[in-house]
Automatic annotation (TrEMBL), chains A, B, C, D, E, F, G, H:
GO terms for molecular function: hydrolase activity. GO terms for biological process: 'de novo' IMP biosynthetic process. Residues 121-250 form the PurE domain. It comes from Desulfomarina profundi. This is 1-(5-phosphoribosyl)-5-amino-4-imidazole-carboxyl ate carboxylase. Pfam families: AIRC. The lineage of its organism: Bacteria, Pseudomonadati, Thermodesulfobacteriota, Desulfobulbia, Desulfobulbales. NCBIfam families: LarB.
Length: 250, 250, 250, 250, 250, 250, 250, 250
């Protein structure tokens, strides 16, 4: 409820077009509406393209079906993350219009077409190893479902620098770069030293022993000596995509 | 050394303008130059506005003076971080053209004028408490030295939500938002839930006991349930500024 | 056994009303009785309404049946926590009078009616997300089984502040507030900043990566910058209910 | 701004007593005011007795003097925590009306008289050892400055149980119990097993080696097997006092 | 091989009773024998009663059968720890002379009779809760298999002090006390404050959330403020028994 | 106060030998005395030889002087640990009868003569390196002040096994062995594999980097694969001495 | 592309043998080629004998089959690590020429014969316990597949020093020593103190409780007080073998 | 004492050349001698060139002077590490023949000349940043004092890859490579991916916040995805040098 709407409302009251009681009622929801304004992810979503997202990890298939059905009725983009194969089978049987991406563990529906006009450029998604691809794919599916242009380069870790250097144009032409890496998580530092674009580093839980399920990669990325690197949670491809969307969306 | 320079060089060789030996010599530094291309932070700096930065924490005043002098000869922007007062006194006595920012623990020289045309908008810098201000100031001085437009809102923590909500227009009009917070580090989540701009969260080491010198805030920010939040190292105001510069620079 | 009782007892001995042997016997249990006084959880339980509780996590169904049967004979309130579905099926087949709450993983029997007269007011139980509900339910079932008045507000996390602000009257009218939250665990700080009632914060293990099974939420809550917040163990809805009972019981 | 105020405002507009512009202006601060309502710690403070508090740890003496002066002008209770002796000397020289409590590291002014009528009873503050007394004193000074009735029992650790058992009446007659303990932090468990009152456990950083500056005590308290125990941050005597105030204040 | 045996050996050589070659052979195993002296757990075992022990956790049933068979041929005491039920079924089918203790997860054979004459007294084994009993049982089976006199007191945690105080004579008459406790692990401190006997504290992994699989109990015990307490690894009932054997064996 | 004493007391009352008032007085301290029984470290101290100990780390010189003076009046053994040189200078100036052991950071008074008849044998104290000697000395001074026979072997770490093996008789003839080691803390495992005596392992904070102030040594000792090893807190030479006293005292 | 090749290329250009465009093209791939030079693990592999390795942990059997097939076509040595039995069964059914080593969890093909001439000597692989053998075997299979001479000594932990001392010649004659140990991880320190050869320490995850899945062993090894010890990741037998290969290969 | 020496000894006994008593005496020191053989670091030192080293961190200047004097009498190489400037001033005043290296915090004496014939090649020492130089220097001084050929390349971190790539010949021609790096510690991975020589990675404590005094770098290096990398303790330049010496010494 911006100033203009408020002025109209009060003018209506003054003019008698609106009763005092009705005006009070509507204004007494004003704080709520203001806050709805702030949090009405629903409306903001439709405007900015970031849909409501179902965090599938702690939910039963039935709960996912129920929430997804509500979304489908509104015809909004549907994104569900961390849905394992078993759950996905049950959900997609009930809701056949949903697409399941096995590697990304995601369910989507009502995907947007790629809409370059809404973005400053494309987001490059890099994975250090093949094992990091599921996290990279979570970012990719999230973005492409929103219509966000994406290019990918997978399996380009620091132990073979030529792989990343050979594709430096892919990196330097990107608007945003997402880098998913496990183990020592050094790739964002190397890329951050090569290009001037914002790098969103996603530590993955790939590794063993002293990788501590991604802590080694997380710490490595937080301590990156290269400028222009920021970090999201371990395995949080979805979060990286949200940050890229926030940066890249016009 | 781009394709054009290379063509010229070889044409010169072909034409006899350049001796074979000289060409070999110059090309034998080609990988270096190519790599300089990749890493020539120097050239890239001049182009993107991110200067070489002196990390003052592990250096003696003499080392800082020596490096800073080299920078001053090139007339480039000079930024030194984590320079305590004692060191700063020695350095500024030797190099009086440097400015010392006591709260940010920074030395600068050859600051740029604010140059809005180079940026998509301004960066909003928010601190949760007054104790977080030094970290916020490290970000602010870094950005303003580069000519990056900045607005600040300090002491606006979650325990008094009205403080942040009263300035929601400052947030929603920003291109990028940097949020410095210690203790539980909840402010980026709240702001991330209110606006659609990219939020760069900076955990600070403010707190005691189970804040573990910023770990509590760091973990809180990494686990933010709000979209569009990415995190830099504890107390790394400079790193947040670099990320903001990478995002906001046209 | 205070000084007065002791004087009477010894006077009785001196007067011959009490035999030497009997006095010795009673006094020789004196330390024990004093300590029984202190620890007679049984008697205190009947008086204060906090029942003996079966911690089901490390017990076999047979052990649970055996202990529960002993309780049932005394007709006392029965509460068993952390009983998974598989165990519950075996136990309830053997003891059909028990009720199983699947979401809370609890078994109860001999529940009390809600008895507002015994309490200063009601306890509000808030969950930040839907995934935190099982922990909130553990608190709710514990309290309602004791007859403690409870109101709930689920899925009201900080990323959508209006949800909590819209229900501020529910919060401000409560005598005690229990807040269950995972991930960054910021909700207790926000609520603690809005109301003057004691807030019992329950970190949950909901999250992934750097949530470290609830450590992020735990640390966030311990470092809350809002006054009037205290914390119980991760996922300890039962413990939060005990604290609420201790505070709210007249 | 409640419904009544809103109705009056709008009636004034309708009656022409208030201009449209002025009404818009005042209503456009409505969300802010509503949130001020929620967070107006100032007003709530005056009402509930919890004053604004200066966290002295990260502040210079000059900053403390400046903030304290502002408080003194309002004649409100002044509490500053974590002010070391050196800072306190400077502050009290500038502001002689302030009282410095050396052991608690606190500065106060405008202390309230003890006002039993405002409380359900007294708060008992227990310290396990003599070294935990500064933390206990931070709680005591906070409460007594608010007028909150307090009784103390210091140096009553679990290695000599008789010390605590000899004072069981002090414990059982209290409305709230604060227990400060370092090292293994076992005292809250023992007290929680003896009485039915809410126990606020404060781990202290007293200890060495594997006490890890209070982590051992913190974990011990969070895992307490006794009911009715909740925990605040390490060394957070002030936070324990705030929780006690929230519980005990009528 | 002590000096006497060595003298005899060499006298035999000098006398010609032993050939040079045989003497060389036997002496060339001398360092080995010397070291065997140090490490000949075999011989020392027979002498001190501590048998070779099979750590079953990382072994296949086949490996356990193979090692156990070798032991059985020597008719020595056999102890295998951390053998789950599934493995035990296979092993005991192959080696029916072995006894399986389900709660302690142990296999034994050739148990010694209780032999009080070999010990200074009995070892008291206390468990804080019922869930700690398997760890306590690992200690008990280890000791009783060696013939070590043992008395037990299970489920006597600090939340009900009378349980432990009512059995103070069991404690004070013991030669050694083993205390197994999970969660906050406070029981050894309380017992260490009551008696002057050596207390071997065994943290257990019982608990959840911030018990961190026994870390909370471990830290609590290491920081015990009571004298005469030493600690073994989490869940290491066997290690506690070995320490008790070393102390108590005459 | 056992049953016999109680019977006598009451008989005296019945007989008129004791007045009612006096009996009440003595019995009204009964719970206290009973608990004194449990905790009367004072009486138990005189009996077992373990004196009250002053933990000097968190105390001012004035506090130490005050407590020590009280002890001196009772002519009991005085032990104060963790008293740095600066504090010690002040204390010994005020109380010249105290002896300061600089390396052990201890103050003592009224030391006992060595009294072999009260002990089963001697305690061997081993340090791995020279830097571990202060911790070993804290154990040695504690024991020798009590009259406990002690032998020492310092600087005998695992990197030079012959040092420890050359003194195997010192080890095997001991009743108890205390081993202080920092860095990797491997020495207790090696010694535990060589002898059948109880080994009390004391991790020290000696080391740097990944020694984490003694955590590496602590974990190494807790995981010792040798039988008969138990562990005390990091740098806790005093605690090791208490355990040795509890084991070795007849 | 060394100086000679570069000279030839440019001479060709000068001579007209090569067109300007072609020279530019080839030189513009120069950085790539240089980097290929640096990273051409393929060529370097063939030269040094270290094959491309498949990290099986995060891959499906299908992915392993696909990658392995590509390798088999090139007839290179094939090594796949961390392939569990289930996956191995599927892979070896599809690719029968592969050998599966169950204990080492490895698949190999095209193994090299042992080629002592390529090495300075043999690598000794020691395991502390039988449970550490799988990690030791990962190192052994890796090395022997490369043709690297290896000798092994398994189950030679510090609790029985004679086992290692009896085989000191095996150690002292080795060129490199790999030591795999779990629990307290003390064996590398002991061996490092006995011989002058480089010791590669491999912590294993064998242990329980405070071994924290290998952290105790890892820290112990990093803090080794013996010279000539370096450490690889927990359970990383393969990494230890790579280090040994790098050291020992002529 | 090998088999031959033993045969001679016994033959002498048999022949009467050696008395029985003398033979017994010599053989009874046999284990000791064997172990001396194993641990005689002194002799082995003279032979291999690794001197006894004084760990200066926990020692007083007086202790260092005393130990150093003993070394000087033997005319052996003297190395003392972690000697701060203040201590060094006192020591060098007493022992003027010692040289102090301020950046490496080392004292040396009787340095060896560089002796390439004793080594397979040179060791390259790389530091990622200028702040890592002190650690690199500790390695360099250690090696050069032993006569070990060394080349250095300082300030060549991953954020500017060209710096390291420009010196690839320095790396590829080295026999061993030591890499000191703080912050994210990524440099060893990059170098390990470029060359086939053994890389000894030294994490440094350089950094702040989530570098956790070198933990981030340590974990990064342990998880290196490049082959041929092993790790020493944080800041342990000396340990890296010992490993290099063990590898490189002929």
């Amino acid at each position: 409820m911006n100033r203009q709407i408020l002025t109209t409302l009060l003018t209506d009251l003054k003019n008698g077009t609106l009763s005092l009681e009705e005006t009070v009622n509507r204004l007494s929801t004003f704080p709520a509406e203001t806050l709805d304004n702030a949090c009405l992810d629903h409306q903001r979503t439709l405007r900015t393209g970031i849909p409501e997202v179902i965090f599938g990890a702690g939910k039963t298939p039935e709960q996912i079906i129920s929430i997804a059905s509500a979304f489908l009725k509104q015809n909004t983009i549907l994104l569900a993350t961390r849905v394992n194969e078993e759950k996905a089978a049950i959900v997609t049987e009930a809701l056949p219009s949903l697409t399941y991406y096995q590697e990304a563990h995601m369910l989507t529906c009502n995907e947007q077409r790629e809409s370059p006009d809404n973005y400053r450029g494309y987001t490059a998604i890099i994975s250090a190893g093949t094992s990091d691809i599921p996290v990279a794919e979570e970012a990719r599916i999230t973005l492409s479902t929103l219509g966000h242009p994406v290019k990918t380069l997978y399996d380009a870790g620091v132990a073979g620098l030529h792989r990343i250097l050979n594709h430096s144009s892919l990196l330097s032409a990107a608007e945003v770069i997402i880098v998913a890496a496990g183990m020592e998580g050094a790739l964002p530092s190397v890329i951050g030293g090569l290009v001037s674009r914002p790098v969103i580093a996603v530590p993955t839980s790939i590794g063993y022993g002293a990788s501590f399920s991604g802590i080694a990669a997380l710490l490595g990325m937080l301590n990156s000596c290269a400028p222009g690197v920021a970090v999201v949670n371990i395995d949080n491809g979805f979060g990286a995509a949200c940050m890229a969307e926030a940066i890249n969306r016009i």
